[in-house]
Amino acid sequence: MCCRPLSNPIYFSIACIRRIAIAQTSKATALAIGKAMLDKKAVDVQVLHVAPLTSVADYLVIGSAESDRQTRAIADYIDGMLSRSGQRPLSIEGTSSGQWVLLDFGDVVAHIFRQDTRSHYALERLWSDATQLPLPEEAPAPVAVPKRRIVVRKAAAHKTV
Question: Cα torsion for 42, 102, 26, 30, to the nearest 10°?
Answer without folding.
Answer: 0
